[in-house]
Every structure is written in C-alpha cells, then in structure tokens.
Amino acid sequence: MKVFLSPSYFRYGGIIIVSGDGLLHEIIQGIFQRIDAFDAIKIPLGIIPAGTGNGLARSLAHITKQKYDKSKCFIWGFSIFDLK
Question: Angle, nearest 10°, between helix axes 21-32 and 55-63?
C-alpha cells in the first residue's frame, strides 16, 4: 500500500491487480487516504480476478451485461476483455 500513498504514484499510467476482492479493497482504501484522492482515483485500475469467489468481478460483469469467465477475464474500468 506504500506505493499508493507515495508522491511517485502519479508516474504510473495505470494499475493492474491480480487478486481477489480483498487486495482491491486495500488499494482503494490507500488511494482514498491520499490528500489528492480525487485526482489519484482517476488513474485507470485493472483487475485480473484471482480470488476464490471474485464477487466484484462477477458484479461488474453483471452490471455491464458481459459474460464472466474467470479463466479469460481482465477488467479495466467497466469493460471486460478476453485475455486470449
């Protein structure tokens, strides 16, 4: 979480997380602890679901009317891409 609190955070063009919902929650909490949180949250955030249940990934697929398939799923913002 130190990266998300450091001043060098803005040198990244985006963040990709390979995890379940827990790490994503921790990262978002870290971003919102920043003084400049509303600017920091604009950096794109991608998720490769690798958790047990992947509730967030399933929910994002559902609300965007896209098929959820853990084996070939990459979520960037609110779009789901096939990794093949």
Answer: 80
